[in-house]
Amino acid sequence: MGRITEILSAKRRFVFLFIGMLLFLPPLSFVPQAAGEPNMCGKVCPRLFIILSPKGILPGALSNIQAMWFGVMLVAVILAVTYFFGRLWCSHLCPIGGFSEMVSRIFPGWMKINFTGIDVPAFRYGYFAVFVVGAYAGIGAIACKLCNFRVIPFLVGAPFEPAYVAYFSTSMGLAGLLSVSVFGFFARGGRAYCNLLCPVGAMDAAVNYIACRFGSTRKVRTDRERCDGCGSCVRSCMVGALSVDGTLKIRRDALVCMSCRDCEKVCPQGAIAYGKGEKR
């Protein structure tokens, strides 16, 4: 029993991710079905409500919120939790990012694309701006063409629903599958989509940054007095949130860190911990 407890403790993040997949993904889809949807589209969608509508900004926003009320509530809960406890949704419960990360682990390292050299905040919020104004500016349905909240539930549900299989023969389905594959399944760490293209992740990271500035949230932090700059945590970070500064100490970007705590597990000096405090 002690060994089982030890294993569960070490892998508890993956236990929570598996629970998230059971709750949100086919064939069970407990949460979407509670709102009357078979998957994470329609009223459960946590993304489309932020898009500026050609109907007009205010009327469009009200219409989106009314149509996707469940998704709006889900995002509100996610952001509230992040403000006080860190990015627990993205790191521990999100079924979409979790599935992408787990599939990524199947493939060997030489097949992986390393996106950690990208300036994440610049890329993420540039894409986020395009996502928000796309339909309003007449760019097209970029929100749905590159939507992992649609692609992954359809992919998981394909064995149970022929319509999901047919979706992947359309241009929209192929575009979504390509983006999820390149930025998810074949990305180092499996979380490049979450880090660069996910609007929910962009909002969540912004709230985390604000909460860190105000000292309102729990966060993964580094005791710089104990840190010797060995770089173990940098190599373990799947989202590229860590770097070694000029003093050979670790710096953490609150706009990128996902609160997964993988760095804490590999730190040989025990310099990384999760909680409140001034240490970075």
Q: How would you characterize this protein structure?
A:
The structure is a single chain. This protein has 16 helices and four strands. The protein has helices at about 1-10, 10-25, 30-35, 55-65, 70-85, 90-95, 95-105, 120-135, 140-145, 150-155, 160-165, 170-185, 190-195, 200-215, 230-235, 260-265, and strands at about 220, 240-245, 250, 270-275. Helix 5 (about 70-85) packs parallel to helix 14 and helix 10 (about 150-155) packs across helix 12. It starts with a helix and ends in a 5-residue tail after the last strand. The model is unreliable at about 1-10 (pLDDT under 50).
Gyration radius (Cα, Å) is 19 Å
Strand order of the largest sheet: 1-4
| Count of strand segments | 4
Helix- and strand-based class?
mainly alpha
Q: How many separate domains? A: 2
What is the terminal-to-terminal distance? 36 Å
User: Quick one: overall form?
Assistant: globular
Q: Which regions contain 5 or more consecutive residues with pLDDT less than 50? A: 1-9
Biggest sheet layout: 2 strands, antiparallel
Name the average pLDDT: 86
Strand content bin: 5-15%
The number of helical elements comes to 16
Please bin the fraction of helical residues: 40-55%
The helix/strand order is: HHHHHHHHHHHHHHEHEEHE
